[in-house]
Write a structure and sequence with these properties.
The chain has 100 residues and is mainly α.
Length: 100
């Protein structure tokens, strides 16, 4: 790839396309080898394609949530309210199981 670029352009960007058959086969094989190593149930190509389609939106959403929390804490610092500016953590609502 580097030999095909001109001297003044940026490095090429490698993209992930979940609809490319060879890419999907590689990801499926890699994921299933890893699942066997860790004793996790192997997934089909279709299952992995669905999961891959959800990764980018999940990353974007997580980044937006964290950025919002950082801004809220920054407001406290800018107001000089250092005692209420603290470490913030989040808990996944789906992961939380209330005690009975």
């Amino acid at each position: 790839m580097k030999s095909n670029i001109s001297g003044n352009s940026a490095d090429p960007i490698i993209t992930f396309d979940k609809d490319d058959v060879d890419t999907l086969d590689f990801v499926t094989a890699s994921a299933n080898i890893r699942s066997i190593v860790f004793g996790i149930e192997a997934k089909s190509r279709f299952d992995i394609k669905q999961m891959a389609g959800n990764i980018i939106p999940a990353i974007a959403t997580t980044n937006a949530i964290i950025a919002g929390l950082c801004v809220l804490q920054a407001f406290k610092v800018l107001r000089g309210d250092f005692s209420s500016a603290k470490e913030v953590s989040m808990l996944c609502a789906k992961c939380f199981v209330p005690s009975r």
